Amino acid sequence: MSQPVIITAALTGSGSGPDKSPYVPVTPQEIAADAIASAKAGAAAVHVHVRDPQTKAGSTDLALYRETTHLIRASGVDVVLNLTTGMGARFVPDREDPTRGGPSTTLQTPARRIAHVLELRPEICSLDFGSLNFGDFAFLNTPPDLREMADGIMAAGVTPEIEVFELGHVRLARDFIAKGLLPQRPLFQLCLGIPWGAPATPEALTALRAALPPESPWSAFGVGRAEFPIAAQTAFMGGHIRIGLEDNLYAAPGQLARSNAELVTKAVDLLTLIGQRPATPQEARDLWDLPSPG
């Protein structure tokens, strides 16, 4: 029999939000409620960003992370917690002085980007393994910054989820592995369809998968309308899947998803149709070499 497939629900992100859909969770209470509902629907893991309740934009506020994670953990629902470290990497050159960041720049120090992880100790946190043009801005993750972040994350006993957006990111991650800067069997997340990284196509998914270390567990997602096609291809190829309102706002063409749990339910149905099943949180811990909570 094939292994169970881990479903990760990416709950809110920092991009498209309530301006595009009223169902994107914003407050800690909304994000936690959607995390709990997603777990009950079949997600073994939840990937968490937080948003400023006033502006509704993505945030790095430690108090918001504290409240959100406390609400999820206090619910008693078993789910693998995955916190982002992607915030704080945006660089938009000032139009008059390109050596300085413009108003949309969010650059933060590596220490600040992982502060919530070191305090809250989730089982997993994302680690974006390289730089790229991300839409109209630069997404900066330099090797020295990644070394500092990886050192802090692993010293805290947290498993880094290596997010890669193109083949060069895999090359960099493999160099870190060879130098002992990452675990020998790291968890990879293949990110497809983000402009201007790898496209959400079968060819790109196959190429990225082929470049990974042979024994590394991996997951993948496609953004927008590619979410479920990439999920089906990934599951068929032996990977795990990520879905959620961070990556896609629609349950069907022209039909907004009313919650992350609705998308998780659709993912469970998809796995059933292709003869597979969703992993439990404990199975996810076993497959991803995570310690059991507590």
Structure description:
The chain is of the alpha/beta class and 294 residues long. Helices cover 35% and strands 19% of the residues. It has helices at 28-41, 62-74, 110-113, 115-120, 143-155, 167-178, 202-211, 227-236, 260-273, 281-287; strands spanning 7-10, 45-48, 50-51, 58-59, 80-83, 90-91, 124-128, 132-134, 137-139, 159-164, 187-192, 218-222, 240-243, 250-252, 255-256. The strands form 4 sheets. It has an 8-stranded parallel beta barrel with strand order 1-2-5-7-10-11-12-13, surrounded by 7 helices. A 3-stranded antiparallel beta sheet has the order 6-9-8, with no helix packed on it. A two-stranded antiparallel sheet has the order 3-4.
Number of helices: 10
Helix vs. strand class: alpha/beta
**Secondary-structure element order, as H and E?**
EHEEEHEEHHEEEHEHEHEHEEEHH
Average the pLDDT over all residues and give the rounded result. 95
Radius of gyration over all CA atoms, rounded = 18 Å
Q: State the distance separating the first and last CA atoms.
A: 31 Å
Which strand-content bin applies to the residues?
Answer: 15-25%
- Report the major sheet: 8 strands, parallel, barrel
Q: Mind telling me the CATH superfamily name?
A: Aldolase class I
* The first-level CATH class name: Alpha Beta
Number of strands: 15
